Amino acid sequence: MSAPNIIVADTHELSVAGLLYLVHQAFETVQVETAKSRVALSNVLKNFPSGILIVNPYGVKDLDPASLLKVLTDNPQVYPLLLVSRIDQEDLKPLIKLGSIGIITKNCSQREVLAALEAAIHQEKFVCNKVMEAFLAVNEAADNSQSERQLSEREIGVIRLIAKGMSTEEIGEELHLSPHTIHAHRKNILKKMNVKTPVELVVKAIREKLISV
User: Fold this and answer.
1) Which of 54, 61, 159, 170 is 20 to 30 A away from residue 27, measured at CA?
2) Model confidence over 4-56: pLDDT tens digits?
3) Under a CB-based contact definition with an 8 Å cutoff, are residues 112 and 104 in contact?
4) CATH of 5-132, one of 3.40.710.10, 3.90.1510.10, 3.20.20.70, 3.40.50.2300
């Protein structure tokens, strides 16, 4: 592989040492700089505005995923290879949207790290197996949760009428159903939406765009 400039940003000495070893295994000659804080990283980037940035978004002083996003936005010629110590999809989602990015964990195999460096050279997206499995598990759990509480058209109609402030009896008259049936609908809806009161139900239904006001 042709040798780019490489910056390793992490405060964990063992991780940095392991990465430096693999970097030198991958490239015969390579310029490597390290940084342990956001300030140090900014200073290094002034001298190396392009190349590969191997960074732990949770392991650099004064740096988190949100501030890392700004650093990367300000330095578009840098390819970010995230070395994550924990996998938080919500934290990482804005970074993933950057496009060309790599994500590995500290438990990745040597083969995967080298593959990630190869992808970085070609500005290609790379996600190691452990990260991919974690993302799939989160998405599957979310899909299951949503399907378990899927509301019928009738139930959504009841929510709309609750939002209008109508009582159980009034909703029954509107839908030509008995108060007993409406009471059962209300009970099931509260359970599916995981709320306890009609007010919580309406607020959540609006937030999730089940109904509009």
Assistant:
1) 61
2) 899 999 999 988 999 999 998 888 788 899 999 999 999 999 998 899 999 99
3) yes
4) 3.40.50.2300
